[in-house]
Amino acid sequence: MSFIDSLEIAAAILALLIAIIGHEIMHGWVAYKYGDTTAKHQGRLSINPLIHIDPFGSILVPLMTYFIPMLLGASSGFLFGWAKPVPVNTHTVIRNGGYNAAMQVSLAGIAYNIFLATLSSVILLSLPQPSEADGIAYLFGYLLIMKLLLVNVVLAVFNLLPIPGFDGAHFITYLALKYKIRAVAEFFAKAEPYGMIVIIIILVTPLKIPLVIWPIQSVLNLLLN
């Protein structure tokens, strides 16, 4: 493994932590604005990565989807993962702000990822590509911005999918409840235990191409052109 590869892996790890931890904190922060102090009292609004790490979503999934393929020389890996979900008392949020508030909590993490992806693309387009004359700090910073762009686009796309247990499904659930379409909400509630199976199926089958890869490529092209 070359020195550049080591820098790229370090940048990818840092970018992933910034993306997934901020994503979860935003859920808790918006819920807090609607009177839910659960995440705050449990210390989950802290940026300390140790309290947010999920062994499967923060370690195993990124290894499978990005780091191992990268070390094996594959070009098809993509940086993806998630942190431990921040606890939200939905009843408190709905009591204080209605279903609109619950939908805002659901979309808060995605909004954070979209903001970071957009900011990263603006910075990246304004920076000259690193050369041999540039120092390690500049090269690492450039790689970090690249990885921040990539991972935040991936997270936004994945979470917009109506996968049970993920943000897109939560948003649709509260939207359905707002308009009293309880069958939709009941469907996602019953399907939530199988959300992880859906994720694995998407990741290991050709379904990831139309559902994930193409949307990611489209968003990246939009941000970089």
Overview of this protein structure:
This protein is mainly alpha-helical and 225 residues long. It has one domain. It contains nine helices and no strands. The protein has helices spanning 3-33, 38-41, 55-71, 90-126, 136-160, 167-178, 182-191, 195-204, 208-224. Helix 4 (90-126) packs across helix 5, helix 4 (90-126) packs across helix 6 and helix 6 packs antiparallel against helix 7. The longest helix has 37 residues, at 90-126. The protein is globular, with a radius of gyration of 18 Å. The two termini are 32 Å apart. The model has no long low-confidence stretch (mean pLDDT 93). The chain crosses the membrane at residues 12-35, 56-83, 103-127, 139-161, 194-216.
H-E order: HHHHHHHHH
- The structure class reads mainly alpha
CA radius of gyration: 18 Å
Shape: globular
Return the domain count: 1
Mean pLDDT: 93
Instruction: Tell me what portion of residues adopts beta-strand conformation.
Output: under 5%
Q: State the separation between the terminal residues, measured CA to CA.
A: 32 Å
Poorly predicted runs? none
Largest sheet features? none
- Helix tally? 9
Helical fraction equals over 70%
Number of strands: 0
GO cellular component, one term: plasma membrane
GO biological process, one term: proteolysis
Transmembrane segments: 12-35, 56-83, 103-127, 139-161, 194-216
GO molecular function: metal ion binding; metallopeptidase activity
